[in-house]
Design goal:
- The protein is of the alpha+beta class.
- The chain has 7 helices and 14 strands.
- Helix 1 runs antiparallel to helix 2 and helix 6 runs parallel beside helix 7.
């Protein structure tokens, strides 16, 4: 199945969604709130519509799981060989703040593992892409772009801009290095920073959903890094009965 999927097709879908998002971003827009109090804009809805329609046309036999669609029951999902995992805008809070740190996330999950991922940050013009056994790239450059040879002297840590928990900060404070440089970033760009090497580690000891991480996790893995479950230190898995992610840490293997 994976061989038949053209990564360039998925990149084009993400760009089309990104163009629609930027048209709304450039003007005034209203903000609604979902039942869980998370924000929703017309850009989320439009991006979701574009991505779901395009993927259904391109690959009609592959089911779709999106943040903005009603999720299929686990009794159906558990039998999926593979599926698209989508967050039409990851970082809606950053979109509303107009700081540019939001992404379009499209992942292909095969048997609980992300095997293809496209993460597009339309306001920044950055495109991350990865496909299993074909490497990970940022704007055409192979990842990682750089490696920290002396993490014991200086460690670069990235954390959430809008969701930094006390537990995450305590974990960061416990890291062993002579110097720790901590930066904040929105959306799935944090995972991508570890993949590209501009950050050494991204701890997330706070809630996220599978669609928040799937696409960037594919990029992380193809860049030779890993997203580890915090408690078990096992790789993150997807298509669980509960779509809430466990706490996790993204770092080199």
């Amino acid at each position: 199945m994976l061989k038949s999927i053209l990564l360039n097709d998925i990149v084009a879908v993400a760009k089309e969604a990104g163009d629609a998002i930027m048209e709304i971003y450039s003007r005034d827009f209203t903000v609604d709130y979902k039942d869980d109090k998370s924000p929703l804009t017309e850009a989320d809805t439009k991006s979701n519509e574009i991505i779901c329609n395009a993927l259904t046309q391109l690959y009609p036999t592959i089911p779709i799981l999106s943040e903005e669609n009603k999720a299929a029951p686990y009794s159906d999902r558990k039998n999926w060989e593979c599926f698209w995992l989508i967050d039409p805008i990851d970082g809606t809070k950053e979109f509303i703040k107009k700081n540019g740190e939001f992404t379009v996330n499209i992942a292909l999950i095969h048997k609980n593992t992300p095997v293809l991922g496209v993460v597009y940050a339309p306001a920044l013009g950055d495109m991350y892409r990865a496909k299993k056994d074909e490497g990970a790239y940022k704007n055409g450059q192979k990842l990682p772009l750089k490696t920290n040879a002396t993490p014991e002297k200086k460690l670069f840590v990235v954390a959430s801009k809008s969701h930094l928990s006390e537990e995450t900060q305590a974990f960061i404070d416990s890291l062993e290095s002579e110097s720790i440089e901590q930066v904040s970033k929105g959306s799935s760009l944090k995972l991508c920073m570890v993949a590209e090497g501009s950050a050494d580690i991204y701890p997330r000891l706070a809630p996220t959903m599978e669609w928040d991480t799937g696409a960037a996790d594919a990029v992380v893995r193809e860049a030779g890094k890993m997203t580890y479950q915090f408690e078990s230190n096992e790789p993150m898995i997807y298509n669980k009965e509960n779509l809430l992610n466990p706490w996790f840490v993204v770092k080199g293997k």
